[in-house]
Design a protein that fits this description.
single chain; alpha+beta; Ribosomal Protein S5, domain 2; Butyryl-CoA Dehydrogenase, subunit A, domain 3; two-stranded antiparallel sheet; 8 helices; 63% helix; 14% strand; rod-shaped; YicC-like domain-containing protein
């Protein structure tokens, strides 16, 4: 299986104290870069969440957003007696110092921060809910990345086939093209080197022929294309290896074009370079 670094997932779950929602999104990146955005009270769980993500992903810029909507507790709410006593004491002290000060109303007291005590939310419960939520999100996320990876694999295979076709068309064309060019070059050399023996002309032709011979480039192209097929069949984290092969393919296509003495070979080399660039752009999205 080949995975894209681009993916998305969104899940939610209910806890006893409220609703948790988790969103994962990722784009391509040279390394694994995880950004967690969550309420500050959840930072205690950050290490566990990072471990879960790191176990699934090797590369990519990952953004994880966690939102929490607390549920209003209808029952089991009590007054904070200690704070209520403190408020009464403060009220007396203020009235003593400022006789004209307004008394605290019942609404003022009930709206005072911390006056209403609710059962504490268990960290263990929140942790378990968050871990379960992250695992579910990662399953959906991996499925999304896998679907995108399959599309990219098909994209690459189509272009590999086109390059292989171009290479196959070049192979039988090259000897005839070189022979025709050597004939033209021989005539030019004889005209330019009048009085020089044929052996000198043959030496010059042989030297130039070695410079324009592309058998080695065509052979290396075949080797690199075969390796790409092997990597795509093998699957896994293939992005970096395929990116390296793109550099090698581009080098051979460039050399093929620079050595070409025929318009058709030059055209084929140019089309190869276009296809290689298209593949290289998409390979940047593979893990």
């Amino acid at each position: 299986m080949i995975l894209s670094m681009t993916g998305y997932a969104n899940t939610s779950a209910d806890a006893s104290s409220g609703t948790l929602s988790l969103e994962l999104r990722a784009v391509n990146h040279r390394y694994l870069d995880i950004q967690l955005r969550m309420p500050e009270e959840f930072r205690v769980f950050e290490g566990a969440l990072r471990e879960l993500i790191s176990a699934q992903l090797q590369r990519g810029k990952v953004e994880c957003r966690i939102n929490y909507a607390a549920r209003e507790v209808q029952g089991n709410t009590t007054l904070n007696r200690e704070l209520l006593t403190q408020l009464a004491q403060w009220s007396c002290e203020v009235k003593s110092a400022l006789p004209g000060a307004r008394d605290l109303s019942v609404a003022d007291v009930l709206n005072w921060r911390g006056i209403l005590a609710t059962p504490a939310v268990s960290n263990d419960e929140l942790r378990a809910t968050l871990v379960s939520l992250m695992q579910a999100a990662l399953l959906e996320f991996s499925a999304s990345r896998s679907r995108e990876g399959d599309k990219l694999k098909e994209f690459l295979l189509v272009r590999l086939e086109k390059i292989e076709t171009l290479r196959a068309e070049v192979i039988p064309h090259v000897p005839a093209a070189i022979a025709a060019y050597e004939t033209r070059l021989t005539n030019r050399l004889r005209d330019a080197m009048q009085g020089t023996d044929d052996e000198r002309v043959r030496q010059e032709i042989a030297l130039f022929a070695s410079k324009i011979d592309v058998d080695e480039e065509l052979s290396r192209l075949d080797s690199h294309l075969t390796e790409m097929h092997r990597i795509l069949r093998q699957g896994g984290a293939v992005g970096k290896r395929l990116d390296f092969l793109m550099q090698e393919l581009n080098r051979e296509a460039n050399t093929l074009g620079s050595k070409s003495v025929d318009a058709e070979v030059s055209r084929s080399a140019m089309e190869m370079k276009i296809l290689i660039e298209q593949m290289r752009e998409q390979i940047q999205n593979l893990e």
